[in-house]
Write a structure and sequence with these properties.
- The complex is a heterodimer of chains A (246) and B (271).
- Chain A has 246 residues and is an all-alpha fold.
- Chain A has twelve helices and no strands.
- The radius of gyration of chain A is 17 Å and the shape is globular.
- In chain B, the strands form two sheets. In chain B, strands 3, 4, 6, 7, 9, 10, 12, 15, 16 and 17 form a ten-stranded mixed beta sheet that branches. A seven-stranded mixed beta sheet of chain B has the order 2-1-5-8-11-13-14, with no helix packed on it.
- In chain B, 42% of the residues are buried.
- Classes of the chains: A mainly alpha (246), B mainly beta (271).
- Chains A and B meet through helix 4, helix 6 and helix 12 of A and strand 13, strand 14, helix 2, strand 16 and strand 17 of B.
Chain lengths: 246, 271
């Protein structure tokens, strides 16, 4: 209990009140049945699986931790955070810059394409669910190809429109990313369902830490130190047989 | 040590501005401004080839806490230039805690071509270094750029003993940012041997190829040409229809340097 209170105090400067209704709407987009195609992407993990480097639950957790702390925290999570604030101030120029940045930091073609494809599926799915002029305008810009439509930017716009706070938006995004990876590993390695559940459960504490870390960073901290994952994502394109698109 | 700290250290602020232009069939270095320890050689030519080869020299032997280097390179339309650093860039321990910074700004005009030969940057123990590279080019210009980051003076057993190494590499074509390679290595906070980070590798090699002729290159062919084995991982990816990025993660410097040079000339001959 104490910890919870501390955490909410820490975030008090960024927290809009998280109402039950906005929480439920946030949960819905992270439901595994939400059709944005995350089950088709491994973001390089499949290369490790084929090289037999993810065979145990511990190895899966280690991979996910690196992806979390060295890819998501310093990449998409920072883009989401900035897009969220840019949406608040209706700064469309900034959003366009973020869309460009989001693509530029993803050097591996498949990860970059995945970000755009998931983003486009996301906006198609959420557009009828919410009345947000900015999201509508953004969709128009994507259709006109003025912007690429990266998922992290769209997610930042949408979660701001939902009325959730940026901390929970970032945290649930990272949770859903890891949950997607773990579920994909369960199918591809394969692992038993329980192993997957336990792995994700062990990762939860890191997801919380990662979300807190993001709140202390700004877009100037963008970096990608997960060079192994990036290289694996580049190599994925050339794998002989593949379960996943990325 | 106390004597050392009493010494007033004057920081170096190296500057090198170079502008190139085609004149009478050869590319010439028509403007150069140099402030020590940075210095440029004169242009060298191979036979009738109009490409100017210029060496960038750093006379201080390395950067020390608080030192700055600024390199500014402009290629007028249709210039052809090959730049080589005379030696590896060494970053000395930051005894004062100050950062060494290097910035490199490149501007390529229509049809211009720049080759930046791969050289190694070596952050010594306790070094703090930041390098910002920005390249602005046209869709008609060509860039082949290579670089290598070392973990330290490996021969002395100095491996990831630096304090921080930050590199931000921005590549703009017709004002749109097509690649932003940003690394921020902090050995005290990271276990590089973890899966997904550097794993077994100690050296990072990068090659950037941007040219209207890139569409003639097949990444699948390049992936086959690129040499990878257990001590050296490597791959190729397309940044867009006119840009390719190659990355190496290697346990060893010599084979990496050899490989990146081989790939460099392979691509250079095709472009």
């Amino acid at each position: 209990m104490k910890r919870q209170r501390d955490a909410s105090n820490n975030r008090s400067n960024t927290v809009d009140t998280l109402t039950d209704f906005s929480l439920l709407r946030l949960l819905q987009i992270h439901d595994s049945a939400f059709p944005i195609g995350s089950y088709t992407h491994s973001y390089g993990m499949e290369t490790y699986i084929q090289e037999d480097l993810i065979r145990t639950k511990e190895q899966l957790i280690e991979f996910c931790r690196t992806y979390l702390f060295h890819n998501l925290v310093y990449g998409d999570a920072l883009i989401i955070q900035d897009a969220f604030h840019a949406t608040k101030s209706s700064n469309k120029v900034r959003l366009a810059e973020l869309d460009e940045l989001c693509g530029a930091i993803k050097l591996a073609k498949e990860s970059r394409d995945a970000s755009v494809n998931v983003g486009k599926q996301f906006i198609r799915t959420v557009a009828p669910l919410i009345d947000s002029p900015l999201l509508e305008q953004w969709k128009h810009k994507i259709d006109k190809e003025d912007v690429k439509g990266h998922y992290a930017v769209l997610y930042g716009i949408y979660s701001e429109a939902l009325g959730v706070d940026v901390y929970h938006a970032v945290m649930t995004f990272m949770y859903a990313s890891l949950s997607g990876l773990v579920q994909n590993a369960v199918r591809a390695v394969p692992f038993g369902q329980n192993t997957g559940v336990q792995a994700l459960n062990e990762l939860l504490i890191y997801v919380e830490q990662a979300a807190q870390k993001v709140m202390d960073l700004t877009i100037d901290d963008l970096s990608n130190n997960a060079l192994g994952i990036e290289l694996a994502s580049m190599k994925h394109e050339f794998l002989f047989s593949r379960l996943f698109i990325s | 040590m106390t004597q050392m700290s009493k010494e007033v250290k004057v920081n170096h602020f190296g500057k090198l501005d170079m502008a190139f232009e085609p004149r009478r069939g050869y590319t010439r270095l028509v403007h150069v401004y140099q402030q020590p320890p940075l210095k440029a050689s004169r242009e060298l030519y191979e036979g009738q080839n109009p490409t100017a080869t210029v060496f960038i020299m750093e006379s201080s032997g390395g950067m020390v806490a608080g030192d700055r280097n600024e390199i500014d390179i402009k290629l007028a339309p249709n210039s052809q230039v090959r730049l080589k650093q005379q030696s590896a860039l060494k970053i000395y321990p930051s005894h004062t805690g100050e950062l060494c910074t290097q910035s490199i700004h490149v501007k390529l005009g229509e049809g211009a071509r720049l080759e930046w030969m791969p050289e190694v940057t070596i952050p010594f123990e306790r070094a703090k270094f930041q390098v910002d590279t920005s390249i602005r080019m046209m869709a008609s210009s060509t860039l082949i750029w290579g670089e290598i980051i070392a973990p330290g003076r490996e021969m002395r057993g100095e491996i990831f003993d630096f304090q921080s190494f930050r590199s931000q590499y921005k590549l703009y074509v017709e004002d749109s940012l097509i690649a932003f390679d940003t690394l921020h290595l902090k050995p005290k906070e990271m276990d590089f041997s973890s899966i997904g980070l550097l794993e077994k590798a100690l050296y990072v090699g990068s090659l950037w190829i941007v040219s209207p002729n890139v569409d003639k290159l097949n990444v699948r062919d390049l992936q086959e040409v690129i040499y990878a084995e257990s001590d050296m991982q490597a791959s190729v990816t397309k940044l867009n229809d006119h840009a390719i990025h190659c990355r190496w993660l290697s346990k060893e410097q010599r084979t990496l340097h050899k490989e990146i040079n081989r790939m460099f000339s392979h691509v250079s001959n095709l472009m």
